[in-house]
Amino acid sequence: MAATLTQNRFTGPEWIFERKFDGIRLLAFRQGGVVHLLSRNRLSQNCPPVEAAIAKLDVADVIIDGELTWGRDGVIYHVFDVLWLNERDLTELPLDERRAVLDALVLFPPVQRVARLTDPKPWERACHEGWEGVIAKRRDSRYEHRRSPLWLKMKCESSQELVVGGFTDPQGGRVGLGALLLGFFEADQFVFAGKVGTGFDTKLLLALRERLDGIEVPTSPFTKAVGLPRLRAHWVQPEIVVEVAFIRWTAHGKLRHGRFLRLRNDKPAREVVRETA
Question: pLDDT in tens for each of the 277 residues of the chain?
Fold first, then answer.
């Protein structure tokens, strides 16, 4: 069961919150004395400390879901769900009942339960403590073998001002534009930083397209542009500044999970540089 990314921030009695770990999703299968570890992509994993800890469980058979991380103290298997126990399929039980079953198991290091977060705004704690984010789960959710809207991931975001250097055509039922092509200035270079296609409403898409059509140019203004789209792309004078939210910069210097926040009419385009903090 995979979580769906959301930009919404909320709490409620029907939801529980857990820390989102930045590791490898791991399913642990135990049948008798035999233990198998599989990744999310169903690839076999070799982790003797976890295998030994699962083998020590006082059960006949079990399937556990969790996340494997590495740190200064070695590996930790953070478990947050149980799918099967002693010849019983638990996937149709509500999450609260599955958690109660998991809580009753005696676990051994490096296996440990993922704690439930009780902060009023758990996503703020996540960002303050440098976590990747939090997972919100419906208490009544059954375990589904798919990406589900009943599990939501709220990732910590940074923000960055960037300059529009182009845009792509809309596709399907979308209007105005598909995505903005954004960049920043670095010395004398206008560097492509990626594209952003979410965070707009219909009114803004149409207004932006009208404004961009008025400053269109025949060639790309980007002077340093790895991965720049070529199909259905239009180029504009780099003068419109926008603010975007994003998860992080990739190793290739592109925005990861960028989202439009607002226009910044108060800042000159030439002052926009990449923020490294």
Answer: 999 988 889 999 999 999 999 899 999 999 999 999 999 888 999 999 999 999 999 999 999 999 999 988 899 999 999 999 999 999 999 999 999 999 999 999 999 999 999 999 999 999 889 898 999 999 999 999 999 999 999 988 888 999 999 999 999 999 999 999 999 999 889 999 999 999 999 999 999 999 999 999 999 999 999 889 888 999 999 999 999 988 888 888 899 888 899 999 988 999 999 986 4
Nearest-Å Rg of the Cα atoms of the chain is 23
In sequence order, the β-bridge partners of residue 82 are: 64
* Residue where a domain terminates, one of 101, 131, 156: 156
| Residue 25 bridge partners (DSSP) | 67
| Domain limits for position 44 | 22-113
Residues noted as catalytic: 20
Q: Alpha-carbon distance 254 to 158, whole Å?
A: 13
pTM value is 0.69
Residue 77's H or E segment, with its range, is strand 74-85
Same domain, 141 and 221: no
